[in-house]
Design goal:
Helices cover about 15% and strands about 45% of the residues. The protein is α+β, with helices and mostly antiparallel strands and about 140 residues long.
């Protein structure tokens, strides 16, 4: 499979909440960037320059298993991620500046996209008829 790159729109979620509550006059900080679709990664990973432009604050650290071994990464406040007409909120994990932004498996699952390896692109999950769905299993 070749590389799949997508354009994503990111919005500082705290800015958006404050604007809605009337506690912020300025428009929420947002940015459009390219991200590598990485089904081997778990989360939404962004470069420090993107995090800085969004004005995100560090919240925690997470242990991350990388191709170079285990590492500690910084975790940041959530953003609203928009992709191909779908959106959801995700925490951000920082990657080194020289690495690409990564769109991992959890955001793909939540947004209900799959990689079309033949077409080398991202597509709505064909198992759901192209509509975004969630899956849950319960006995009730």
């Amino acid at each position: 499979m070749g590389k799949v790159i997508v354009k994503i729109k990111l919005t500082n979620l705290k800015d958006a909440f404050l604007k809605t509550a009337g506690a912020r006059k300025a428009k929420p900080r947002e940015i459009e960037v390219e991200a590598l679709v990485d089904t081997g990664a778990t989360r939404l990973y962004l470069k420090p320059t993107v995090i800085k432009k969004l004005g995100l604050e560090r919240t925690d650290t997470v242990r991350s298993q990388t191709t170079n071994g285990s590492d500690i990464r910084y975790k940041y406040e959530p953003v609203r991620l928009e992709l191909m007409g779908r959106h959801e909120n995700f925490d951000v994990v920082e990657v080194p500046e020289e690495a690409p932004n990564h769109l991992g498996q959890v955001p793909l699952e939540v947004l209900d996209f799959v990689v079309d390896s033949r077409g080398q692109n991202l597509v709505p999950n064909p198992a759901h008829g192209g509509e975004q769905m969630t899956e849950e299993y319960s006995e009730h």
